[in-house]
Please model this.
Amino acid sequence: MSATHAPASDPSLAALARELRGLAPSCGPVRLVAVDGHAGSGKTTFADRLAGALGGAPVLRLDDIATHRAPFGWTGRLRRQVLDPLAAGRPAVYDAYDWQARAFTARRTLPPAPVVLVEGVGAGRRELRPRLARLLWLEVPAAAAWARGRRRDGPGLAGFWDGWERAERAHFSADPSRPHAGLLVVRQGDAYRLVQGPAHAR
Model:
């Protein structure tokens, strides 16, 4: 998915950026902020726009961590390569997966910045939540998000999407993120509306 940039006048993102900077660190010196939601819901675009509002905050994309064989079996590698170094105040150096080559083909570095975004399906899963300063959920129903993703990727990836939908449904059934979200993110045209999430109701 290609990145798009938010209009500079989007007040919701500016306000959210100020709020996130003011949170207590959650992973060593880092405020780790998860952007979760169904595949195709717009997480990448939103995370890129929020990163811009934060002045260029680093973004960890879970598409770099997940694989065809284990779309949700990446928590151990994430802990070793990313979370533990950030918690110690060190840059995280991690292996990045190439979905075309079906192999880890690159190494990337994530600095221990004041705010680091983690973007992808499952970013708010239970293994990560103790390290998160905030969990944001893209409020798009699964069917609508998946249909958007299928349109974006075209018929050549229909088989991939069939398998992905089954895997995602099983993941969120066993380990739902949305009930733990502090904010729900609703897209409205070129801007976003932020709604208090289910976590505040408990």
Summary: The helical segments are 11-21, 43-53, 75-87, 142-153, 158-174. Residues 158-174 form the longest helix (17 residues).
